[in-house]
Amino acid sequence: MPTVRLLLLACVASALLAADPAAAAPKASGALGDVLTLDNDQSIACSILPHPQDDGFLVISTGSGVMWIRKERVKKVTLGLEGQMKALDSTDPATLIALARWCLVRGHDQQALTALERARGLPGVTLDLETLGLYATLLDQAPARGPKAALPIYRTYKADGGSDEKILGRLQELEDAIAAHNDQLKKLNLPPGFLPQSDSTPAEAPIASDGKLATVAKDGIEGKGWDAENEKYSNPVAAKVQQLPPEQGGVRALAVTSPGGGKDKAAIKKSVTYAVDDDHSVLSLNILNRGDKPMKIAIAMKTNGQKWLYHESALKIVPPSDTFKEVRFNLRGNDYKSQATNWANNGTIVDLNDIKELQLLIYNGKEEANVLVHGMNFIKDSEL
């Protein structure tokens, strides 16, 4: 009799689970930030999980377990920050600006600033006045950027007709401070804007106001040791260090050229033994696109000397120019693709303390590519 009762209970439980579209599954953890509103107006705080099968279900983690919910029961989906970032089209300026405003009202100022900088860096994008004022304010408040970075943006805002009293008031504060500083310098018979010469040698090549590289004696990571990737994976490519003419700063730069070919990219690689620490987890480089079309670039790293795990960054767009453009890759970011992410740009680099190979990728397809690289170095993530 007890056995029959247990069987009956098992049948009832199975029937209830089959009828309930939100039946609990094995436990999973994850940051919550998304909210589902069901057809009965119940709200569920959760994290929406990847679920490629088109079986009519959404899969979510509630922090204490995983649930499958029928899509027809979901009246509204409100994505949190992580969900917004995963769904982001990083090539669409309107989407980036909308994300920045979404982040701002929720107190995610740093993410808002990052989104605006990505939008502003896209080819042909000019921020409207309201967004430009917002960008200047976020720069001003960012701990690692501050008034020095914000001042030229404030000035552009005013020159273009910006009228927000708070923004213009902040600009006037900065202008007054500069004027007072220059008055003090004048009393000391020093030129306006004078700063004492630093004794330290910069780690990477500074960029002058005209966009050309200032001369430095020290090469960056680009200085030597680069080879073409196997043509099984790459278009034909050549990498050679050359001395630039005086009008381009007179520095040594890595010239990377490719005639294009049957692959989607040209890749060069360098064998290294690096360990990225918390203080220098951003890879910065100055790049000049000598072609006549925008060029997409990325970096890749192979980590873990036992497994040689491949990780590739999200793409950056470098417009054609006769001046260098600084490009930065946050090595602790969550926009890297690998086998573990099924080649989607939503993962992190594993084993940053054991980097064995660094790659520079130029997505040129059948097009010719011709770029110069200088000042490739690891910098502090606070400088992002």
Gist?
The protein is α+β, with helices and mostly antiparallel strands.
Order of the strands making up the biggest sheet:
1-5-4-3-2-6
CA-CA gap between termini: 70 Å
Largest sheet: 6 strands, antiparallel
The best one-word shape is globular
Count of beta strands: 17
- Helix/strand-derived category reads alpha+beta
- What is the total number of structural domains? 3
Percentage of β-strand residues: 25-35%
Describe it for me?
The protein has 384 residues and is α+β, with helices and mostly antiparallel strands. The protein folds into three domains: 20-78, SH3 type barrels (Roll), CATH 2.30.30; 127-189, no CATH class; 221-383, Galactose-binding lectin (Jelly Rolls, Sandwich), CATH 2.60.120.430. 26% of the residues lie in helices and 27% in strands. It contains seven helices and 17 strands. The chain has helices spanning 2-19, 81-86, 93-105, 109-120, 129-141, 146-159, 165-187; strands at 24-25, 34-38, 43-48, 57-61, 66-70, 74-78, 226-228, 238-243, 252-258, 266-274, 282-289, 295-303, 309-312, 316-318, 325-330, 355-363, 369-379. The strands form three sheets. Strands 1-5-4-3-2-6 form a six-stranded antiparallel beta sheet. A hairpin with a 4-residue loop joins strand 4 (57-61) and strand 5. Helix 6 crosses helix 7 (165-187). The protein is globular, with a radius of gyration of 26 Å. Residues 1-32 and 194-218 have low confidence and may be disordered.
